[in-house]
Amino acid sequence: MISCSSDVKNHQLVIANSSLFDTKTGEVISGRTIKIDMGRIVEIKDFEASDLEYDEVINADQRLLTPGFIDVHNHLEFVFGDSIKEVNSKDFKKLRKIFADQYIPYGVLTVRSAGGREEHLSMMKSWMKRDNRFPDYYPTGGALVSVDTKFHNHTFVKDSATIVRIIKDRFKMGFKHLKLYSFIGANQLRVAVNTSNSLGVNIFGHIENVNVSISEANRFGLRNFEHAKTLFLDVIRTYEKSGVDISSLPPDDSNNWVFREYQIFNHIDIEDSILVDIINLFKLTGSTLTPTLHIHANPLGLGFVNTKIPNSRKVVESWPPLKRKNAENGFRALTRLIKRLYDEGVPLSIGSDTSDPGKSVLSEILLLNEAGIPINDVIRIATLNSAEAIGLDSIYGSIEVNKSANLILFDKNPIEDPKNILLKKIVIKDGIVWKGKNH
Ligand SMILES: [Zn+2]
User: Fold this and answer.
1) Ligand 1 centre and the CA of 239: distance in Å?
2) How far apart are the CA of 294 and the centre of ligand 1, in A?
3) Which of 34, 159, 233, 367: disulfide with 293, CB 3.0–4.6 Å?
């Protein structure tokens, strides 16, 4: 009998005769039967017809079974727009359902936030409670900055003592992830890293060389970096400081920054010694990177799924064909950097950082594949690597006994054709089949 209860503890599920994708080896093992109880995988063995002791049995019929995907870079603004500022506790669940609908149908079952409003801390805390109807959610609170940017999603910390206090307070509330944003001073960054490490808080940063460079942040102990573009931007800042002529680039102002970014990707040679030094540093220190390619591809129509384009990037629509072509070339240069990082063994993870985040994750997967990364490895990036990058690989990222039963059973095999990832799939959250509309 199929249980209607949302209580994962009372439901047992068997997925019989699946082709199990082993994210650790990249291999597919056929004829595997997975038993799930209390939202966890309890047994994996060779095919047997069915097990009637269990509440529900799915015959996978050799379809591909993978772990659920992970998005390591979400902002609630991209789900709700500006529509929610102050939120009332009676709406927490309703909003969480809207959030779930943007993720679960696409197989994205674990989400780490990369900065949220201070006003949303209590809602984010309430969302940490595991529930099979919603993605597992790991919030950070606001990204720390030490220049008062007035951006929402950021928390202004005027000195090191404030940093220590905020990290400790949030840790007590259950926040185990911390985002550091560009507008943070070197000393504050160092204090944030040390405090977080002493508590076991997972730290990651968008380091765009405003106050601190990537190599400096790395030297202070930061190991998880966001956005591939920041590597190119770091090189440009080094050029600026050392007097290299970059006057051919568009100006760095509000009208031109979008095009300037694409032109920077065009401008820097992949063999540039500063860039190579950063890549080597990442290798040496085991640092990870979240590329976020879709946010650059989508405004140019190069994403695999159309998602809402943030206002800041809509300017692309007005560009004449030649300018668009240049931007497209810039985007391709960015993908070559990703391929280079992959070839060098730098672990990559999946982050959406845009609207329609579940769809964006699928596009990101296909963009990484298009960049030259074999699909088996991209699936590993979207699962195990992403789990490792956020320090949660003991729970997620592979189909193993004791791990979370967050799974995707694909109608058509994405290993045979990566675009099958966009087609229908059965999504299993905490061992319960998702009953909403599937994609
Ligand atoms: Zn972001």
Assistant:
1) 25
2) 12
3) 367
